[in-house]
Amino acid sequence: MKREITFSQAILECTDQYLANDPSVYVMGLGVPDPKGIFGTTVGLREKYGEKRVMDMPVSENGMTGVAIGSALMGMRPIMTHQRIDFMLLSLDQIINNAAKWYYMFGGKKSVPLVIRLLVGQGWGQGPQHSQSLQTLFSHIPGLKVVFPFSPYDAKGLLSASIQDDNPVIFIEHRWLHNLHGHVPEEPFQAPIGKAKVVNKGKDLTIVSGSYMMVESLKASECLKENGIEVEVIDLRSIKPLDEDTIIQSVMNTGHLLVVDGAWRFLSISAEIISIVVEKAFKYLKKPPGRVTFPDVPTPTSWAMANNFYPRAINILRKVEEILDLPCKSEEEWGIVTTGPLDVPDKSFTGPF
Amino acid sequence: MKREITFSQAILECTDQYLANDPSVYVMGLGVPDPKGIFGTTVGLREKYGEKRVMDMPVSENGMTGVAIGSALMGMRPIMTHQRIDFMLLSLDQIINNAAKWYYMFGGKKSVPLVIRLLVGQGWGQGPQHSQSLQTLFSHIPGLKVVFPFSPYDAKGLLSASIQDDNPVIFIEHRWLHNLHGHVPEEPFQAPIGKAKVVNKGKDLTIVSGSYMMVESLKASECLKENGIEVEVIDLRSIKPLDEDTIIQSVMNTGHLLVVDGAWRFLSISAEIISIVVEKAFKYLKKPPGRVTFPDVPTPTSWAMANNFYPRAINILRKVEEILDLPCKSEEEWGIVTTGPLDVPDKSFTGPF
Amino acid sequence: MLNPDLAKAMYLDMLQIRLVEEGIADLYPEQEMRCPVHLCIGQEAIPVGVCSTLKKEDIVMGNHRSHGHYLAKGGDLRSMMAEIYGKANGCSKGKGGSMHLIDLSVNFYGTTPIVASIVPIAVGTAFATYLKDETRVTIIFLGRAATEEGVFAESLNFAALKKLPIVFVSEDNFFSVYTPLSERQPRERENTEIAKAFGIPSDKGNGNDIREVYNLSEKAVRHAREGKGPYFLEFETYRWREHCGPYYDTDLPYRSEEEFKEWKKKCPIENFEKLLLKENVLDKKQLVEMRESIQKKFEDAVAFAKSSPFPHPDEIFSDLFKEAN
Amino acid sequence: MLNPDLAKAMYLDMLQIRLVEEGIADLYPEQEMRCPVHLCIGQEAIPVGVCSTLKKEDIVMGNHRSHGHYLAKGGDLRSMMAEIYGKANGCSKGKGGSMHLIDLSVNFYGTTPIVASIVPIAVGTAFATYLKDETRVTIIFLGRAATEEGVFAESLNFAALKKLPIVFVSEDNFFSVYTPLSERQPRERENTEIAKAFGIPSDKGNGNDIREVYNLSEKAVRHAREGKGPYFLEFETYRWREHCGPYYDTDLPYRSEEEFKEWKKKCPIENFEKLLLKENVLDKKQLVEMRESIQKKFEDAVAFAKSSPFPHPDEIFSDLFKEAN
Ligand SMILES: Cc1ncc(C[n+]2csc(CCOP(=O)(O)OP(=O)(O)O)c2C)c(N)n1
Ligand SMILES: Cc1ncc(C[n+]2csc(CCOP(=O)(O)OP(=O)(O)O)c2C)c(N)n1
Ligand SMILES: [Mg+2]
Ligand SMILES: [Mg+2]
Question: Is the ipTM of this complex over 0.85?
Answer without folding.
Answer: yes
